[in-house]
Amino acid sequence: MRLTVVGCTGSMSGPYSAASSYLVQARGVDLDTGRTRTWNVMMDLGPGSFGALWRYIDARKLDAVLFSHLHADHVGDVISLQVHRRWYPTGPLPPLLLAGPEGLMGRVRGIDGYAPDETFEQEFVPVQLADREPLQIGPLTITPYAANHTVPAFGFRVEGPSEGDSSSRVELAYTGDTDTCDSIQEMANGVSLLLSEAGFTRADTARGIHLTGGRAAKIACEAGVESLVLTHIQPWTDPKTVIAEAREEWDGAISTAYAGATYSL
């Protein structure tokens, strides 16, 4: 299993990266063809990310897009995806699995001003996420966990084959946008890699919105993860500040995400 950071800037696209968007890939058998292939799943698709995705894969080969929540910085480029699938030059592409919280398709319609009766059935197969109800996408098992944010939101625990040994299973977790909560702590337990938002620093006193580097590191420490990757850092925040706050809470492997970073599990 491999994770690629397509975009990681917090709350908006930034000068060096698109907004939140992460590509998970794994090799596995396609039951429709009986052949082994690479499966491609996106977690979030923030502004600027769909074009950036083309640097890493043929966008026609996406298997699913999962949205942690419906804020614009995580769903904004879904309309680029919709246009790509409906108007591809050689003809419409097959409907793509699109999973997210309740209200996802209404959000898609609203972004580009579509009529209320537009179903997007030509482009998408919508699935409503539910807490701890796993999705199976090829060799990947993806389980949503309820998050602590200002709107309904989920983190994702992803299990798949190890890139080095396909007979072994590995796990990563992505917090989406959240503050601390029991559910996200449970999601992180024992994973190889925790991709955690750190949208705030300790100077931000509001709670129930975002994690800080320090709070993310506490989750990592209590969960016994192997490595922590901090993401969703605002473009006006120095990543060194976030790292420093995290290191006060945990002495494990900590880094910050950047566009193009890849992690092999």
From TrEMBL:
Organism domain of life: Bacteria
Residues in Metallo-beta-lactamase domain copies: 57-233
InterPro entries: Metallo-B-lactamas, RibonucZ/Hydroxyglut_hydro
GO molecular function per UniProt: 3'-tRNA processing endoribonuclease activity
SUPFAM superfamilies associated with the record: Metallo-hydrolase/oxidoreductase
Protein name from the UniProt record: Metallo-beta-lactamase domain-containing protein
Organism encoding this protein: Gleimia europaea ACS-120-V-Col10b
